[in-house]
Amino acid sequence: MNDIARKPHTVMMTDAEWQDLKETAAAAGMRVSAFIIHRLAAHNVEGDGTHIGDTLARMERSLACLEEIERLSLAEEPETWNAVNEHVEARLALAGRLRR
Question: Residue 9 in 3-state DSSP?
Fold first, then answer.
C-alpha cells in the first residue's frame, strides 16, 4: 500500500490506552498507524497459516473441557468451586482483563 491511498480514520480509546499504544509503537520503532496495521496483520494469521480465530476456538474448547473436569472433581464441594471462581474473577478484574 502506498501512503497516497491512505486516509485518516477514527478509533475511540481512553487517554491511558492511547498513551500505552504510543509507547508500544515507539518501542517497536514504528508510527502508531503503522504499528496498528502491523499488529492487525500479524494477529489474523499465525506463522503456520492457521487463522487466529481457529486457534482461539480450539483454546476456548480446551479451557471449557478443563473447567468441566475441575467442576466435576469439585462437585462434592460446591463452596470450593464457587470460591475458586470468585477468586479468579477478582484477580482478572484487578488486572483489567475481565470482560463481560
Answer: coil
In whole angstroms, give the CA distance from residue 13 to residue 84: 32
Whether pTM exceeds 0.90: no
DSSP structure class, residue 5: G
* Of residues 71 and 49, more confidently modeled: 71
Tell me if residue 45 falls in helix, strand or coil: strand
Question: Is 28 contained in some domain?
Answer: yes
Is 8 inside any structural domain? no
* Structural domain includes residue 5: no
Where in the sequence is the domain holding 71, given as residue range(s)?
A: 15-94
C-alpha torsion angle, residues 18, 22, 27, 30 (rounded to 10): 130
